[in-house]
Amino acid sequence: MAVGSGELGTLHTVGGVRMAAVSAGIKKAGRLDVVVFELAPGSVTAGVFTTNAFCAAPVTLCQQHLATTAPRYLLINTGNANAGTGAPGLQAAKSCCEALATAAKVAANTVLPFSTGVIGELLPAAKITAVVDAALTELVTNDWHKVARGIMTTDTRPKASSRQLQLAGKTVTITGIAKGAGMIKPNMATMLGYVFTDIGMTEVDAQSAVKQAADLSFNRITVDGDTSTNDSCILVASNQSGVHFDSLSAADQQRFTAELQTVFIELATAIIRDGEGATKFVTIRIEGGATTQECLQVGYAIGESPLVKTALFASDPNWGRILAAVGRAGLANLQIDNIEIWLDHVNIVRSGARAATYTEAAGQSVLSKEEFSIIVKLARGSCDETLWTCDFSHDYVTINAEYRT
Amino acid sequence: MAVGSGELGTLHTVGGVRMAAVSAGIKKAGRLDVVVFELAPGSVTAGVFTTNAFCAAPVTLCQQHLATTAPRYLLINTGNANAGTGAPGLQAAKSCCEALATAAKVAANTVLPFSTGVIGELLPAAKITAVVDAALTELVTNDWHKVARGIMTTDTRPKASSRQLQLAGKTVTITGIAKGAGMIKPNMATMLGYVFTDIGMTEVDAQSAVKQAADLSFNRITVDGDTSTNDSCILVASNQSGVHFDSLSAADQQRFTAELQTVFIELATAIIRDGEGATKFVTIRIEGGATTQECLQVGYAIGESPLVKTALFASDPNWGRILAAVGRAGLANLQIDNIEIWLDHVNIVRSGARAATYTEAAGQSVLSKEEFSIIVKLARGSCDETLWTCDFSHDYVTINAEYRT
């Protein structure tokens, strides 16, 4: 049901950020379903959001608020996506923001709303507005485990990542949480991801950083090829570390960006490890493409093929299905004689056919592992891309056939 | 495991066509796995083939032979796809054609080879060449049931369709067989489909007819979004009815084309009804698109969404997943307020949100049926398109996880 230990390690406090998770009764009674983050004045917030045309009411409102002023609160609920709900849905999201803003004595547009859960049912706003006072009372500087649990839906475990690095003689911290599980093929962002750092950043730099980091992490994962209506990924730079990104050397900026990227990738891959019904964590590496786009086309053709994914579930090195997926990916003038396919260190396809050195036992030994790589060498250019996926199991069907029952 | 009765009805003899199915031991001993069709001199044959870049050896050879001369025999084996097999695979396909040609005293390039089954294993040509004499001995004018069984792989039942119509005072017959089951998102053709008619046709007309008929049938179905390496669809016009297509009035040509289209659609939808693990047969109708392409984009986004398909399996009217699939289909400037979604006669989405008249009970009453339609009205133009799919069940995972065991 999930790959790897899921251990979260030390989750560092980020200056200027407080958090709380409470139960509003949207999901089962007593289960955490509302999370609030408080951001210190001076924090810079940037985000990327779903490209689904039916984007949810909170996504619309969140983008409006973000464009208007500097956010002071993030208000997240699970159990209801508030998507496909039209004008009443937008009103419900607004009333939640207003209730939190009134209780916190800030302007309503400094609250960013996020929702995840069932699509098409009106958000029970009254349940959320009823708990905003309690949430504000419970704000603490470090309970990442609790808030990571608070944003879970069909996730089986919380997802978080944390890094510290020394920059300009000071300690800079990056800590983030995410949730995923199903309807996972983010396009510009994941289901929900929140990354906080105490570095200072301009809005332009923060937006550029979140876009780039999300592109190479949340936008490189797929569970089932379905893009949610609610995907949102947020980066908060609270400027409490005494270090400002602008004043760093180019080398230090690069070090920070690399650590930020690592946190994003750890969160994104945690979503895949806990993909609905996942028993395998698979890295798909496409090398030697002419363009990034064609690498991704091939990668997703493999990563979204139900036939490949069920073979992975069975630990069956049915490599013909990988080959067929490469062949149907739509690349013009694909010279199949030049293509190699590898499972970790085992070469399975060479010159358009089974490699002479390949043995079923060697393929089996890779696929019987919980984690491995599928590597396709296209020999068409110098682009390499990595993406991550999981297998397709009976539990995926069970979870999604019974989601609303 | 399959939707509907699967009754084949009367399967009419087509003058000029004889057939046989034998067992070569490629699959389990005693199971039919080699089918031979004999075509009378003067028959015109046209075909459409997979667009998968890793197209199989028999597909390559078949296209070469078809371009060279008028075919006299179709030689089909199951149990091995002879795909991803490189030069030895091509040699194996050639030797099978040569063996049949020698036994039948025709040129080798008048034999069209077809293979379906596991990808990546070399075709056991000796097993096939050993049975060509027996197959020729057993040729009969009408055993469609047997040859339809002879081309099955994971199909649970044979697929055939037959029509007769009066043209120019004579009876014209069209009879076809097909196989499918999984790796089904044909692109220019289906896994294997063979349609025979005793009308006379020029090669140009036959090619145009098979292309158009396949486009609106086999190219409008999807089980799992995977395009096979071996898809082939063949139309044979044996010219034995005394009616030639060329000499018909435009109205009669249209009548013939319509009947031919019906046979193709019956075969294609039979593949979906018997899709791997299928428990629902679903017609997806996209109306009011600006182009055919955008109708198909939306249709396939729905028909290939694992989340939609698992909800269909559960008979769960989780229409939010259909809405999310429409939203992520990639249509530029999609005005969600104009979109309607219907389940048969039940309106579920209007103005971008749940229709006021919609009730869960009404949605449930449609989805609890074995066969129903999902209709999306885009209100962007005058294109309508229909495609067909099935649900995604536990049995799909079981069948594909255990395919080679």
Note the topology.
The structure is a homodimer of 405-residue chains.
Chain A: E1 17-22, E2 34-39, E3 44-49, H1 57-68, E4 73-80, H2 86-104, E5 111-118, H3 125-129, H4 132-137, H5 144-150, E6 159-167, E7 170-179, E8 192-197, H6 203-215, E9 221-222, E10 232-237, H7 250-273, E11 281-289, H8 292-303, H9 306-313, H10 319-327, E12 340-343, E13 346-350, E14 353-354, H11 360-367, E15 371-377, E16 383-390, H12 394-401
Helix pairs in contact in A: 1-2, 6-7, 8-10
Structure summarized in a few sentences:
2 copies of one chain form a homodimer. Chain A is α+β, with helices and mostly antiparallel strands and 405 residues long.
Written account of the structure:
2 copies of one chain form a homodimer. The first copy, chain A, is built from 12 helices and 16 strands. In chain A, the strands form 3 sheets. In chain A, strands 9-16-11-15-12-13-14 form a 7-stranded mixed β-sheet, with helices on both faces. Chain A has a 5-stranded mixed β-sheet with strand order 3-10-8-7-6, with helices on both faces. By secondary structure, chain A is of the alpha+beta class. In chain A, α6 crosses α7 and α8 packs across α10. In chain A, 32% of the residues lie in helices and 25% in strands. The mean pLDDT of chain A is 88. Chain A folds into 2 domains: 257 residues, L-amino peptidase D-ALA esterase/amidase (4-Layer Sandwich); 121 residues, Ubiquitin-like (UB roll) (Roll), CATH 3.10.20.340. At the A-B interface, α2, α9, α10, β14 and α12 of A face α2, α9, α10, β14 and α12 of B.
